[in-house]
Amino acid sequence: MATPQVAQVRRLVTEIPGPKSRALQERRERAVAAGVGSVLPVYVERAGGGIVEDIDGNSLIDFGSGIAVTNVGNADPAVVERACEQLTRFTHTCFMVTPYEGYVEVCEALDRITPGGHEKRSMLLNSGAEAVENAVKIARGATGRQAVVVFDHAYHGRTNLTMALTAKNMPYKQGFGPFAGEVYRMPMAYPFRWPTGPENCGPEAARQAIAQISAQIGAQIGAQNVAAVLIEPIQGEGGFIEPGAGFLPELAEFCRANGIVFIADEVQTGFARTGHMFACEHEGIVPDLMATAKGIAGGLPLAAVTGRAELMDAVHAGGLGGTYGGNPAACAAALAALETIESRGLVRRARAIGEVALDRLRGLAEKYDIVGDVRGRGAMLAVELVKGGGDTSPNTEALGQVVRYCHSQGLVLLTAGSYGNVIRLLPPLAIGDDLLDEGLSILEEAFAGI
Ligand SMILES: *Cc1c(COP(=O)(O)O)cnc(C)c1O
Q: Is the pLDDT of residue 221 over 80?
């Protein structure tokens, strides 16, 4: 099966976006709902490695991976070959009607590679939001409790329950309520913005969260009714916030002691992205349930919940499922992607990318006082922009300038953050050193030009 080979060089032959992209954008505006946005409206022709090629013939450096999805690279040959082979045999039967081996194999792989040596089970779904919803269903079903604890700056998806779990109003929730009930939000251990300093953040935030769960929730509904604590081990859309050291282990311990299911939302952090297969491993956390999606299948839609057998198996037969969950082509792609992650040492590659990039980003922090914080692990890195001169309030204007410059130079760059002031780097782990360097240089030029 021939895969398009994409030359690994940046090349701009028109302005960005080019004339063909602009024409397509006009067509799109007459056909596609306005509420669906695009970060950079260059229309894609093909992509691979660290390059996205557009319909005008421009080759852009990819620092987005389609939001942490194409960790193994876009159209990775092994993924394409295995998915195509599956498509020629059957496209769908529905696992709930007549099952197939690929689904079982993906679950076996997830049970094997997720943290913890205990007995596990998995189930497959289509999207991250669906995985989070099902993790909450399973936690509630297994414990007979209702309340779910989430955190400031959390992002868990766009369905009704996951909107309730998500912290940020604009653009995710505004006008879309009423939201699902029994969701309780706690302060997040956000080192850069912790009042008593980053070194105190983890333990203090854990104490606050635990005290609030016990007191506030205790008074309202009884702490014995908390089904789950749900958290991203590194927050994604909220601004790539690595919780202060000690926060996650204390929360996990509190959950264990109180019969609360600890759910890790690893939808963005999973599959080698942060320099471990899963971000929980940075502090040795073993979650009871884990939601995964994005990086799982090299770009095909697939998601999963993996967790303790006694929780996963507690739900009655027929209580979990969905028509497309674990589509056979997506399963084949996932098996190839997982093999690629392991055989090409992409966990190590993520760390190497992190070392190179963090060094360069810290250089920016030394030079420019609008760089308030540089953080991240592996190939999940962020730069938080502030007003500068001792003022740490968010600097969205500078962010806009940096991003516009990078886009104009053919660097696909994303933003994040509750305050909309965080640049985030999510290069494919298949990116080469040259493109990584060049992308970082464009980012440096952007700062020099402000
Ligand atoms: C993207 C994301 C989701 C939602 O995934 P979808 O596939 O967009 O539904 C949930 N949690 C986190 C941490 C995410 O980054």
A: no
Q: Are strands 44-48 and 51-54 parallel, antiparallel or unpaired?
A: antiparallel
- Give residue 24 CA to ligand 1 midpoint distance, Å: 27
Cα separation of 248 and 369, whole Å?
30
Residue 157 CB less than 6 A away from ligand 1 = yes
Among the four given CATH numbers 3.30.559.10, 3.90.170.10, 3.90.1150.10, 1.20.1250.20, the one describing domain 19-62+345-448:
3.90.1150.10
Write down the pLDDT at residue 3: 52
Q: What angle do CA 280, 285, 287 make, to 5 degrees?
A: 85
In the chain, CATH 3.40.640.10 covers 79-343
Report the share of the chain in percent with pLDDT over 70.
99
Mean pLDDT, to the nearest integer, of 70-80? 97
Work out which ligand 1 atom sits closest to the CA atom of 128.
5
CATH 3.90.1150.10 location in the chain: 19-62+345-448
Task: Say whether domain 79-343 belongs to CATH 3.40.640.10.
Answer: yes
Please count the other Cβ atoms lying within 10 Å of the Cβ belonging to residue 93: 12
State if residue 166 touches ligand 1 by the CB under 6 angstroms criterion: no
Does 2 score more than 60 pLDDT?
Answer: no
Q: Is the CB of 131 under 6 A from ligand 1?
A: no
Hey, how many other C-beta atoms are within 10 angstroms of the C-beta on 185?
17
User: Which atom of ligand 1 is least distant from the CA of 157?
Assistant: 4
For residue 268, report the distance from its CA to the centre of ligand 1, in Å. 7
Q: What is the pLDDT of residues 140-184, one digit of tens each?
A: 999 999 999 999 999 999 999 999 999 999 999 999 999 999 999
Residue-wise pLDDT for 379-394, tens only, equals 999 999 999 999 999 9
